[in-house]
Description:
Blueprint: H1 4-33, E1 38-43, E2 55-62, E3 67-74, E4 80-83, E5 85-88, E6 91-96, E7 104-113, E8 116-120, E9 126-129, E10 148-150, E11 155-157, E12 173-174, E13 183-184, E14 199-202, E15 205-208, E16 223-225, E17 228-230, E18 247-249, E19 252-254, E20 271-273, E21 276-278, E22 295-297, E23 300-302
Antiparallel strand pairs: 1-2, 2-6, 3-4, 3-7, 5-6, 7-8, 7-9, 10-11, 12-13, 14-15, 16-17, 18-19, 20-21, 22-23
Amino acid sequence: MAQAPLERAVHPALTAVLWLFASLAAGALAGCDADAPRLLEVRPPADTPDAVGPYRVTALTQGRIDGATLTWQRVGGEPTEVALQRKGDGLWIGDIPGAPRGSDVQLWLTARGPGGTARAPAEGVFGFRVLGPQGPCLVDSDCPDGEVCDRLRQVCKVPPETCRDDGDCPQDLICPAPGEACRFRPIDCERDATCGPGRVCRAGLCVLRPDCDSSRDCAAGQRCEAGQCVVPPECAQDAECPAARPSCEAGVCRPAPGCEADRDCPPGAPVCLDGQCVPAEGCREDADCPPDAPVCLDGQCVPAEGCREDADCPPDAPL
C-alpha cells in the first residue's frame, strides 16, 4: 500500500515518453513516404540585346515544395542566390537583374521539400548572353561593360585616361582640352576657353561653334546664315537670270523649256522661237523674230509698224 503514490507519479511520466517516441516515429515514417520534389520544366531567358533587364525565369514543379531558389552568376563572377516566388499551383518565378552588353550569364534552380531536393538542370547550368552591339554605337549602353561609345566616330572603346576630343568621353561628359581629363559640360560661361573644343560662349552659355559669324568668314560665293556658310540661291525670279538660262527654278537659273506658242513660255523668256522660249530681246536678225513682231530692232523683236525709217522695215513691207 505504501507504493501506490509512487506508481501514480511514475505512470504519467512514462506515458509522456511513450507519446514522444510514437510522434517521432510517425514523423519519420511520413518523411520516408513523401515524394521528392520535381522541377518539371524550366524556362531560362534567351539571348537578348537588352542590357537593362530584368530577365524572367519561370519553373513548373511537382510534389511538396517548401521553397525554391534561383542561383545566377556572370561568367567569372560570384554566384548570387534569389528566392523564387510561388505564383500558383506548381508555378514559380524569379528575376535576374540587367547585365552589361557582352555578358554571359549562367543559372540553375533548386527546389527543397520533405522528400528531398531537386536541381535543374541536373548537371551543368542554363545560360544566356546579353548581346553586344550589332553595328555602330550611338550611346554608351550600346557598348560592353567598361567601354564607352565614341559619339564622334560611333565605335565602342575603352575610355583613355586623357582625352583628345569629346568622343573619348562617356556620355554627358566633355573633353575640356586635348590631354585633359573628361568632365561634365559647363552650364554657363564667361569666355570661349571655358567651353572646350568645338564650342564657344554665347550669351553666357556654351554652344556649338558656328561656321561663321559673318559672310566674311565664308568662302567665295557663300554667305553666312544662322552660323552656317551656305551657297545663296542664284535667283528668286526669272528677271534675275541671264538670257542663256532665263528660267528661275528652285533658286537656280535654267535653260528655257520647249514651247509651241508664246503662252508656253515663262516671263524671263516670253517668246517661242523654233520650239524654244527665248528672251524678247534675244534677236540678231529678223529671222529670229516671231510673226507678230517680225522686225529685229536694236536686239528687240517689234511689230512691223514699229519702225523709225525705211531701213527698219523688212523686204515684204519696205515703207
